[in-house]
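By convention, each integer encodes one residue's backbone shape. The lines below illustrate.
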Amino acid sequence: MRRALLLVWLALCALPAFAHKPSDSYLTLRAEGRRVAIRWDIALRDLDYVLQLDRDGNGDLTWGEVRTRAGEIEKYAATHLAASSGGQACPIAEAAPLQLDRHSDGTYAVLSLAAACQSLQQSLHLKYSLLFDVDPTHRGLVQWIAPGAAGSQALVFAADSAEQDLTLEGPSAWETLRQYVVEGIWHIWLGYDHILFLLSLLLPAVLVHVQKRWEAAPSLRKSLWEVLKVVTAFTLAHSITLSLAVLGIVSLPSRFVESTIAASIIVAALNNLRGTIEKRRWVMAFVFGLIHGFGFASALADLGLPQGALALALVGFNLGVEVGQAAIVIVFVPIAFSLRRTRLYRRGVLTVGSVLISIVAAYWFAQRAFDFQGPF
């Protein structure tokens, strides 16, 4: 029991570091004849981590501190991006002075660069290696606008896909769908707040509340029915708001969305301690799922939406989220059902786990609602 509780505690204590979305940088590449114009947005928090931009150590980066290190920032970025076409290198040089821009998760340095190719033949080969040596989960989110293209193609560079070819012709419908399905799966698996909310709802699914106590569910059929109601309600809700947000019909402030997502985890986890909403957890899943959908939409917007294949991107990403979510459920339910009669599950996993989840979520809520950064 003690070892199990210790493992739960250590796992949950590691989560505050992921209160914000994973580390990403954003590149927009536009082919202009033999020249490729590049806009590269890199988070100042990432640059500070590798270059120690905050010289006075007060935790607050100023424009003056960034401006005086602009040369080092550009040099660091330039050594982690390379382009070539037809086997010949396309030298990358600065095209305009460094600027700053505000994203939903903080301030970014904006580098304006240009790659000069002798000719663009079939494709532009891009090698991206920013931050992979210190953060293997970092990604480069690329929008590629080929010569004469009306829309853009979205690509994701990661540690295991650091070199890719940017084709001069648009991707096939199948390739677009596949790409966004994969991104949807990874988003749910790396979205620890979404996972904790779902787990908070699933933890009691193998139990029943009898005389103010949790008891083992009498059958697998009953437990699966509870799981189906919760998952279906959550899926339907976030699919609705994801679509509305991506289509530009409804928009909510990022801070409100992220804070409410953290609050939803607190409510769901604390409910497990008293069982107040025991038979209508699917209602809670639906109501808060509407807010989680806006969170998914923000992640999809960060990936970039191809103008000519918006429906495919939306369907693919949403399908990927469902596949990732289903994988979690398939792994969790059999284990939880087999342990449902044990004191370890009812006291250790459900009670202590729910308390720890609510503590982590409260920390996230403070960060998001009050812009409190803390030590993580």
About this structure: The chain has a mean pLDDT of 86. Residues 310-339 form the longest helix (30 residues).
